[in-house]
Amino acid sequence: MITLHEVSKTYRLGKGSVVNAVCNVSLEVPRGEFLVITGRSGSGKTTLLNLAAGLTQPTQGQVLLGGAEIWRLADREQSALRNRTIGFVFQFPSLMPSLTALENVRLPATFEASGRGNGSAARAAELLELVGLPEKAGSYPRQLSAGQQQRVVVARSLINRPELLLADEPTSDLDEKTEIEIMSLFRDIHLTMGVTIVMVTHTSQLICYGTRAIEMAAGTIRT
Amino acid sequence: MSLLSLTWRNIRGNAFRSWVVFLCALVVAGFALSTTLIMRGAENSLRLALARLGADIVVVPEGSESKVETALLMGTPATVWMPQENMQKISAVPGVAVASPQLYLSTLHDASCCTVPDMFLVAYDPATDFTIQPWLKRRFGNDLKLGEAVGGTHIFVPPGEQNIKLYGYFVSLKGNLEPTGTGLDQSLFFTFDTARDMARISHTRAERALQIMPDSISAVLVKVVPGTKPQDVALGILHAVPGVTPIESPNMFQAYRKQMAGLLKTTLALLTITWALSVVLLGLVFSMAANERRREIGVLRALGARREYVFKSLLAEAVLLALAGGAAGIALGAFTIFLFRNLLISSLGIPFLFPSAAPLLVLVGGGLVVALVSVTTAALVPAYRISHQDPALAMRE
Amino acid sequence: MKIVGVILIALAIVIAVVPQFLDCQSQGRAITLADGRLIPMKCHWTAVAEIALGVPLVGLGALLALSKRRETRRALGVVGAMLGAFAILLPAALIGVCAMNEMLCNSVMQPTLILAGTLVMVISLGAFGFSFGGKEVEPA
After folding, report:
1. At what angle do helices C70-89 and C110-130 cross, to 10 degrees?
2. What average pLDDT score do residues B115-141 get?
3. Which of B227, B247, B391, C97 keeps 20 to 30 A from C80, CA to CA?
4. Which of B156, B336, B346 sits opposite C99 (nearest CB)?
5. What does the pLDDT look like over A11-68, one tens digit per residue?
6. Domain contains C123
7. Distance CA B81, CA B65 (A)
8. In the structure, how many helices (H) and strands (E) does chain B have?
9. How far B328 CA lies from chain A's nearest CA (Å)?
10. What's the domain range around A208?
11. Are the beta carbons of C111 and B156 separated by less than 8 Å?
């Protein structure tokens, strides 16, 4: 599903200083896997996830998504690939504040090249039911709790029936009960829909949800 | 969800930012339209006044040019005299096709014998006139009789009365001329015979008699032979007739033209400063907005929105707000100028006539273009930068 | 809505107060009757009548600023638009001002009232329109 081949990412800060966020990492994530990436803050795990998603260009190395080398594609094709292949769950509140829950769930479908998300309203309603929020379809993000917002984000991530779900610390701002609810959702999605999941977390207790776990430290994978 | 509806939601989502952009566009467009409307209205007015006069050359007593121009443009009465024999001399100048004399008179100030104080009266010779007569023939099929008059667009018979009283003499208002936006709109026109009749009656019926200098006229309107240069005829008149100044039609109202040119320079300078400040403010607002929405845009890109989509969405917001603000500014500007046109004329001392539909539409279009260009110029760079930013970088704290 | 209410109050003050300084009475002009008595010109009565519109408009602006209920704002919007319309009609048709262009009541007072009345109408109708959108806020 995802192949990272000798990938590095370096950030240049002011006054000539440089940060090596990821150093020469090679990683393969086969289809159907639930990979958990752990590590301390600043270990490079979020950067690794962003590299895998094509959200940031590597300084060195290759990134292949579904067999296609992302950075050889034009922006149009890259965006289309991300749109139909990947669902995202971010750490921060990522819903559009001016759209309702239903409209937020439908949003990725409107970027789909063919048809402006025709039929996505019904699917969005189904997904809101899946995450247990059918009655909140007309609510705006400011009217939802943090846990409810994150569940809407999970529903949004599935609207285009992606093969891959990338989650960056999805439960870090949530209480324990809600964390368990979200992780149960992920497990259901992995098992019933066959979606490949790559999740970044600094909570080691969540490793048990995955089929494989790796640890990042100082920009490399700890063996 | 279409680009347009997402754009509308984003506009509603941040009321403060949207109102700032809207108001900037309103001010820029409104100011641009108002200034161009005033200049256009003044030019329009001058053009119509010259057309109303219909003359290639206006001959006035030497030294009275500005008095006569003020009377014609602003309606401030002027009484000037020159010998009637000048009429024959002028007619004899080579190149003169028609010459028609006029008398310039005025009603009394605060006198019960006159229903309208300080009104500019113009008496013409029906035998030679070529300005009022053609209009009378078109409108009524005949000339003015004794005791009849036509007025500029603002002349009316006082309510409850049948006629206008001038020096105790009752004049019947036959009709009103089309507006010019100048003093001609507040003037009354009648024949020489009516003027002399009025002067005769005024001795017994008015507080002060109407004085018409014997064997005198106030001005002569000249039409030149087609193909002749008015400049040459004017020079001929200057040489043949001492004590007069011939004013060629294009040179008429020079003092006002200079005043308008000065006004134009000042307003253009103000307009440029306002525009520049607005664009700078808008640039800051859009930069701040782009920064504020950096993370949101990073998310959109992650979800599959192309750079082009994000760029278009940000510009669409700018364009919608520019159009709305511009339209509101134009409507407000045009409406205010229309309402306060009389105050404009008296305070700026220039003639003004609100343009008709077609030229007004051109000005409106111009104002909208100014608003659009200003807002989109300010939005372009921030929109481009944010839409081309690395999504991961955009989403970082 | 608070800002809208404040703007309406400002316009109401313009409508009620400004004509008092622009009518012919304030410029020292009046009609002299045959018996020598002086009576005010009609622009003066227009100015007086505008006070009767301005005062309720101030109250309306205050209520709009404080009101949280959509139904109340809708009703206030309708009433505000009507008051704005009458602020225009008084100088333009119902009573009127002097006919001569150069008189202050004609060149300044009447246009000011028409402009202020138009703005009152637009803002009130805007408040009416916007009261249909958004979430109802429960009264305290």
Report:
1. 160
2. 83
3. C97
4. B156
5. 887 777 888 889 999 999 999 999 999 988 888 889 999 999 999 999 999 999 888 8
6. yes
7. 12
8. 13, 11
9. 25
10. 2-94+146-222
11. no
Residue B137 CA to residue B200 CA, distance in Å, equals 28
- Listed ranges A92-106, B50-64, B346-360; the one with the highest mean pLDDT: A92-106
Residues 296-325 of B with CB under 8 A from A: 296, 298-309
DSSP B51-87: HHH--SEEEEETT-HHHHHHHHHH-------EETHHH
Q: DSSP letters of C24-78?
A: TTTTT--EEPTTS-EE--HHHHHHHHHHHHHHHHHHHHHHHHH---HHHHHHHHH
Residue B2 with chain A: CB contacts under 8 Å? 110, 116
The answer to whether the beta carbons of residues A4 and A27 sit under 8 Å apart is yes
C71: in domain: yes
Q: In angstroms, rounded to a whole number, what is the distance separating the alpha carbons of residues A69 and B389? A: 20
Q: Is B339 on the interface with C (CB under 8 A)?
A: yes
ipTM: 0.91
Q: Does A209 touch chain B (CB under 8 A)?
A: no
Domain residues for C18? 2-130
Residue B154: the pLDDT is 81
Please, are residues B339 and C91 in contact by the beta-carbon 8 Å criterion? no
A–B CB contacts, 8 A cutoff, strictly below: 75
How high is the pLDDT of residue C109?
A: 94
Q: Which residues of chain A lie closer than 8 angstroms to B392, CB-CB?
A: 47, 50, 55-56
Q: What is the mean pLDDT of residues C13-32?
A: 87
| Structure tokens given for B250 | 């294009």
Q: Do B392 and A90 touch (CB under 8 A)?
A: no
Question: Cβ of B335 under 8 Å from any chain C Cβ?
Answer: yes
CA-CA distance, B333 to B21, in Å (whole number)? 18
Q: Is the pLDDT reported for residue C135 higher than 90?
A: no
Confidence of residue B190 (pLDDT cuts 50, 70, 90): very high
Contact partners for chain C, using 3 or more CB pairs closer than 8 A, are: B
What residues contact residue C86 under an 8 Å CB cut-off, 6+ apart? Answer: C53, C94, C117
> CB distance C102–B342 less than 8 Å?
yes
CATH of the domain at A211: 3.40.50.300
- pLDDT given for residue C137 in this prediction: 46
CB of A75 within 8 Å of any CB in chain B?
A: yes
CA neighbor of C78 nearest in space, from C63, C90, C68: C63
Which of C115, C119, C120, C132 to mutate to test binding with chain B, by most B CBs within 10 Å of its CB? C115
